[in-house]
Amino acid sequence: MYIADDGGFELGAYGNKICQTPNIDALAKRGLIFNNAFASASSCSPSRSALLTGSPSHQNGMYGLHHGVHHFSSFQNLTSLPNLLRDHGVYTGIIGKKHVGPEEVYRFDYEQSERNNPINQVGRNITHMKLLAREFFANANRDNRTFFLYVGFHDPHRCGHTEPQYGPFCERFGSGEPGMGTIPDWAPWYYQWDEVQLPYHVQDTEAARRDIAAQYTTMSRLDQGVGLILKELEAAGHKDDTLVIYTSDNGIPFPGGRTNVHDSGLREPLIMVSPENGTRRNQVSYAMTSLLDIMPTVLDWFGLKREVEDSNDVVRSDVSKSLLPILKQEPPYSEQDAVFASQTHHEVTMYYPMRGIRTRRYQLIHNLNYAMPFPIDQDLYVSPTFQDILNRTRGKQPLPWYKTLKQYYYRPQWELYDLRRDPEQLNNLHGKPSLAGVEATLSARLSRWQHDTRDPWRCAPAAVLQQDQCEALDNGLLELIA
Predict the structure, then answer these.
(1) Among 20, 234, 253, 439, which residue's CB has the most CB atoms within a 10 Å radius?
(2) Mean pLDDT of the chain
(3) What is the CA 373 to chain-centroid distance, rounded?
(4) 60 with 46: CB under 8 angstroms?
(5) Could you read off the pLDDT of 143-168 as tens digits, one per residue?
(6) Are 83 and 100 in contact (CB under 8 A)?
(7) Could you tell me if 481 and 436 are in contact, meaning their C-beta atoms sit under 8 angstroms apart?
(8) Residue 283's beta-bridge partner residues?
């Protein structure tokens, strides 16, 4: 399984005609592209913990980033995908970024992560990653064991905050430039800033375009790494018996992307390739899927079942599920299909809890801390893109962006969007009389999901949770939807 770090749709397979990703594009032709895949959180550690436990971050305890002063960790009484697989004899490994804890909850048999390596060496040095994959596959073959390998690229994560000498996206790391070192298997691609494809939520300025161009260079490095590890898989004799998954953890590190729960922050690439006969190849699925579905999918691949508590309250489509049946046949279309979002922290200082439900047509977002300005993380703050927004706003210069900075900072308590008519999510329809029934249904379903997943924030901000009941605070923040 491959997971990009802040990767988006800078892929030929998803329609980007500029960023060169031939290996991932070839992988997509061998399998199924998911067009409606979403992370459950728009932050690295919360999203990865949800993927590896099958439970949202508010339920597993990873409320924000795991490393450094942020110090968030999952609850110690949980289990995770690598632990469950190991208990059933599967050889588990991780190469690259891990960023979750505690160790006993997320324990891999073979680990080459930031815990015992410099992160760039195991997350961006694709030659080193290739050799580690070779060692992992050799170990599995030697012991004649089935295996699960989790490859956590550090590309295309920003590095301007921590290692500015390598460029905004570490695009100079290993490039062969003076003082940058060399990655033998990497032939860097460089891009013209005036030719990149801008996402709608990034301003159309030279500074932002140059930032995107640097991101493209690291996406191409990631792509070459995908190809190298696939060759190692084939050399080990497992090309025709291994399920391959490619995805990312959250939106791209640009305004509107990571840490936001709109589509631009949650929607992810997801490609799955099964070696089994009768599976769909070079096709697209429009099924609504969540990265919470990855754990049951992998367990299903190994013939294992995840224990799930029985509950009469859970809507069947609101629990995580295996995606393997979709690899053979597209499920029936339903307007009721939905995915859910749970964002609480990113960095420890960035307390801005949000919960959301996203159906095929509508998205309802609840901003619990809406009275405060939306927080900006350190990586984004020092980026050329955000500095450009700040400078243009301060200087009262033209800003060709989809919002003003003030609109970006200050958000209403509730946001409702009709994605069929407003895919950029600019027109908030909350409180519109003609959609009162739609909004009430979505709100009730979101509340039920929060209850069933034991969300500690399910009563906020208008009430306090007392013995599974919401006791009103009379603080003027309660908004009834009826």
Answers:
(1) 253
(2) 96
(3) 23
(4) no
(5) 999 999 999 999 999 998 899 999 99
(6) no
(7) yes
(8) 32
The single residue listed with the structure tokens 């053979």 is: 328
Per-residue model confidence (pLDDT) at position 309: 52
Q: Which residues contact 434 (CB under 8 A, 6 or more apart)?
A: none
Give the start-end residues of each E strand in 15-63: 32-38
Over residues 402-452, the pLDDT tens digits come to 999 999 999 999 999 999 999 999 999 999 999 999 999 999 999 999 999
| Residue whose entry in the numeric block shows the structure tokens 């069929």 | 420
Catalytic residue among 19, 44, 159, 459: 44
CA triplet 370, 374, 377: central angle to 5 degrees? 150
CA distance 239 to 253: 33
Task: Please state, as a whole number, how many other Cβ atoms lie within 10 Å of the Cβ of residue 406.
Answer: 9
**Residue spans of beta strands (DSSP E) within 117-160:** 147-152
CA distances from 61 to 75, 78, 109, 340, 380 (A): 5, 10, 23, 17, 25
116 class by beta-carbon count within 10 Å (0-12 exposed, 13-18 middle, 19+ buried): exposed
**Could you tell me which residues are beta bridge partners of residue 33?**
271, 284
Reduced to 3 states (helix: H, G, I; strand: E, B; else coil), residue 147 is: strand
pLDDT in tens, 221-267: 999 999 999 999 999 999 999 999 999 999 999 999 999 999 999 99
User: Which 3 state secondary structure label does DSSP give 463?
Assistant: strand
- DSSP assignments along 155-174, one per residue: TT---TTT-GGG-TTSTTTT
Residue partners of 450: CB distance under 8 A and separation at least 6: 58, 355, 457, 458
Structural contact between residues 101 and 66, judged by C-beta atoms closer than 8 angstroms: yes
Decide: pTM greater than 0.85.
yes
Other C-beta atoms lying within 10 Å of the C-beta of residue 437: 11
CA distance 305 to 394: 56
Our answer to whether residue 44 is catalytic in this structure is yes
DSSP 8-state secondary structure symbol assigned to residue 200: T
